[in-house]
Amino acid sequence: MIRFFNSLQPATLFIIPFIVFLLWAQAFFIHPFAINDSESLLFIFIADFIKLVPDFIKVLIAMALITLEAIYLNNIFNRYEVLHKNSFLPALMYTMLMSFALPLLQFHPILIINLVLLRALDKIFMLFKNDFPIAPLFDAFFLISIASLIYYPATAFFVLFLISLAILRPFNLREWTISIIAYSLPFIFLSVYLFWTDHFIAGWKDLLKNFSPKHLDFGFAVAKPLLSFFILTGFIILISTRKLIQNFYKNTVRTRSYQQILFLYLIITISASFFLKTIPFYYMTMLVIPLVVFLAYYFVTTKKRAWFAELMLWGMLILIIWNHF
After folding, report:
1. Looking at residue 198, what is its pLDDT?
2. 276: closest CA among 196, 218, 200?
3. What are the beta bridge partners of residue 279?
4. DSSP letter assigned to residue 37
5. Is 213 helix (H, G, I), strand (E, B) or coil?
6. What is 250-303 written as a DSSP string?
7. DSSP 146
8. Contact indicator for 41, 194 with CB cutoff of 8 Å
9. Which residue, 243, 248, 261, 234, is CA-closest to 299?
10. Number of other CB atoms surrounding residue 46 within 10 Å
11. Angle at 17 between CA 11 and CA 22, to 5 degrees
């Protein structure tokens, strides 16, 4: 399986949606399918629209989102040479991590957020040695602001993108000013809407209360199948991290910069959980984009003991199936 996805065969593009369908087939029997536990006005609007759609269409929309995100993520990694070589393994890893347990087979905010974040990440990666950075810079921070209004913990990515700007480009006051303005615009539009509907003060109070630190409260229990998947995935990530550190300075400056940004992505996503009153199970899917780097890197770079890497991959698949039943 690794050899197949480690190549750039066009047939792989048709295999990814098929895998998504197999992993999400049980979602057709889950009711209610859509989750609406977000206090965000923008996501409430989206959730109200989703309620009008038949259940099987909701599942197909979720499948389409995951397929699109997997292929788009793979395209970003290959185009910017984030990994050792180009392959379709990032798409496979994304598909597996977005579907590794039955409670994830629901329509939740991260399904939308990850697509917005991937588009913003694509824009921020364009900044490296770009002679015309203004357009992608504005787009990246505007998209992050939209993500923040859909799901409040995504506000933490404003910090990530400011750090990314510092990593990818020399300091330029004009660029930093544009970044802050671009991020502020959706909040200004929201303020105008709240003022127009006589909810300006109450609306901002509801918004700001979501940013007060909370004690960590997990809204789920870790059963044996889930723990087994975490242990195996963590083991692969540890091996991959060791390889990444060993080969870090063998990469180009651009690749090293992108890998640093994705590592910070992981750290900041974990930190963003402090903005939640209760950490829902689906929140772990916000970690998927940076974790794909570590998992895919292991399978891409493994040449010796290829049988062991293949065993690890099939072990992940077996544990995913176990978590679905």
Report:
1. 72
2. 218
3. 218
4. -
5. coil
6. GS-HHHHHHHHHHHHHHHHHHHHGGG-SSB-GGGGGGGHHHHHHHHHHHHHH--
7. H
8. no
9. 243
10. 18
11. 120
C-beta atoms surrounding 51 within 10 Å: 11
pLDDT of residue 53: 83
CA distance 102 to 167: 38
Rounded-to-integer distance, Cα 97 and Cα 117, Å: 17
Q: Is the pTM of this model over 0.85?
A: yes
> Which residues in the chain show pLDDT less than 50?
none
- Contact (Cβ atoms closer than 8 angstroms) between residue 182 and residue 145: yes
Q: Residue 177 to residues 12, 137, 173, 184, 319: CA-CA distances in angstroms?
A: 42, 11, 6, 11, 47
Q: Cα dist. 249→99, 243, 259 in Å?
A: 34, 11, 11
Q: At what angle do helices 306-323 and 89-97 cross, to 10 degrees?
A: 30
- Report the number of secondary-structure helices (H) and strands (E) in the chain: 14, 0
**Residue 9, CA distances (Å) to 5, 15, 123 in order:** 8, 10, 26
Q: Which token pair is 307? A: 């049988």
Domain locations along the chain: 2-323
* Inter-residue contact 260 to 200 (CB < 8 Å): no
Q: What local confidence, expressed as pLDDT, does residue 309 receive?
A: 83
Distances (CA, A) of 144 to 54, 120, 141, 162, 203: 30, 7, 5, 11, 20
Residue type, 53: V
